[in-house]
Amino acid sequence: NSLGSQEAATARADLAQQYEAASRELYQPILAKPVNPDGAADVQAVLARLPNSVKDRIDGLVQRLVQYEGGGQPPTEAQTLHYLKMALDDTIASMKREGLGPVETRALMKLKADYLEALDKAIPGYQQARQTWSGIADAEEAFDMGAALFTGSKRPDETAAFAKTLTDSQRAFFRSGVRDGLKRALSMRDAGGDTNVALALKSTEKRNV
């Protein structure tokens, strides 16, 4: 059945178009403008609180982002601050996967929140751009959570609780993900060659999500 695959491809393409539009229409214009000096000073004050070990990781990632995102062209001041935000996000996520303790995690998350507050002040329009991007990312997460329902990577009760928090738009992506995940589960074949329908719908919890 190719219907589920076509729907999933359409959902993914829609998300990609939304990301591209947000980048072109929101981020690119505001990152080309001068930075608010007061906000920039607040940003630097927050960055000064970073441990040297974290700074080193962030600086290396920013250099790579300049190459990846800007083709090696010198970034504007606003772009540099944006790259620092992206690098801080990735660095915290990586350190958590590496076993960062809860106390240091909370400290870095507080520092990140302070950085975002300063960044919103430093770059006019940045907060709106972030909110728009976050909305797209939430829709993408909804699709992925739906698709994972039949993989066993998420508990059905966890997925059901997540589904209750979704907006109507996010729920549409979630359902697309569920249908795609179900199609994939139904396409699995056991040793005898029979379609393993029981695997896809083996629990009442999954059917009720």
Shape, per Cα inertia axes = globular
Going by helix content, strand content and strand pairing, the class is mainly alpha
Low-confidence stretches: none
What is the average of the pLDDT values? 87
β-sheet strand percentage: under 5%
Work out the radius of gyration.
21 Å
Q: Quick one: biggest sheet?
A: none
Compute the number of strand runs: 0
Measured as a percent range, the helix fraction is: over 70%
How does this structure look, described?
The protein has 209 residues and is mainly α. The protein is 77% helix and 0% strand. It has helices spanning 3-31, 37-47, 52-70, 77-97, 102-122, 126-147, 156-163, 168-187, 197-200, 204-208. Helix 1 crosses helix 8, helix 2 (37-47) packs antiparallel against helix 5 (102-122) and helix 4 (77-97) runs antiparallel to helix 5 (102-122). The mean pLDDT is 87.
Give the gist of this structure:
Helix content is 77%, strand content 0%. It contains ten helices and no strands.
What's the helix and strand layout?
Blueprint (H helix, E strand, L loop, with lengths): L2 H29 L5 H11 L4 H19 L6 H21 L4 H21 L3 H22 L8 H8 L4 H20 L9 H4 L3 H5 L1
Helix pairs in contact: 1-6, 1-8, 2-5, 3-4, 4-5, 6-8
